[in-house]
C-alpha cells in the first residue's frame, strides 16, 4: 500500500489539466466532478464529526475518478485510463449510453462546452508519473480512511511486539534454523496479542 499522497503531508495541493481531465490528489478526475476545489486535508487527530464531514465530501467525488485499464500498460510505464462515464459509474450528456443508467447514478452537472480528448476518446494515455501515487481508494473517502486506519493498527501491533519482547535478529538468540525462528516469532506475536487483550479488558471493564 502506498503512503498518503504528497498533498496530504502538508505540501501545496496542485491541479493539472491532462487532455481535458484534472490530475489532483494522485488521481485523474472528470473535469465536471464535484468538490474538485476541496483542498482540506483530514488530520490524524480529527474528531469523528470532522472526519465524517470530510469523508462525505470526498465520497461524492469518488465515482468521478478515471479508471485504470490494467490490460493496456505500455513498456515505459504509461497506461490508458477511461472516463468514469464510459465506465458506467456516472451520467454525462456527452455519452449517450449513460442516459440508460439507473436513477440515482451520480451525474456530471458542469459539462465542458469544449470537451478535450478525455471526453471524446474511449481512453487517454497518461505517463507513469501521473499514476505512480494512485491508490486503491481515492484520498479522503470513507474507504480510504478505513484502509489507512487498518494499516495504522497493523503497524502499531508490530511496534508493540518489537518493543515489549525484544528483537529476534540474527546473533541475538541462541537458535538456528528457519523453522525455529518462525516458531519464536509466532510465540512473540501471540504474547503481544494476549497483552493487548488484557489491556482492553482493563480499560473497558464493561466490555
Overview of the molecule:
- The protein is α+β, with helices and mostly antiparallel strands.
- Helices cover 35% and strands 12% of the residues.
- The protein has five helices and six strands.
- The chain has helices at 48-61, 117-120, 128-131, 142-165, 178-203, and strands spanning 16-18, 21-24, 27-29, 67-73, 79-82, 123-126.
- The strands form two sheets. Strands 1-2-3 form a three-stranded antiparallel beta sheet.
- Helix 4 (142-165) crosses helix 5 (178-203).
Could you write a compact summary of the structure shown?
This protein has helices at 48-61, 117-120, 128-131, 142-165, 178-203, and strands at residues 16-18, 21-24, 27-29, 67-73, 79-82, 123-126. By secondary structure, it is of the alpha+beta class.
Question: Cα-atom Rg, whole angstroms?
Answer: 23 Å
Q: Identify low-pLDDT runs.
A: 1-11
The first-to-last residue Cα distance is 33 Å
What is the number of beta strands?
Answer: 6
- Taking all residues together, what is the mean pLDDT? 80
**Residue fraction in strands:** 5-15%
* Helix content range: 25-40%
Order of helices and strands: EEEHEEHEHHH
Instruction: Give a short account of the largest sheet.
Output: 3 strands, antiparallel
What is the molecular shape? elongated
Structural class: alpha+beta
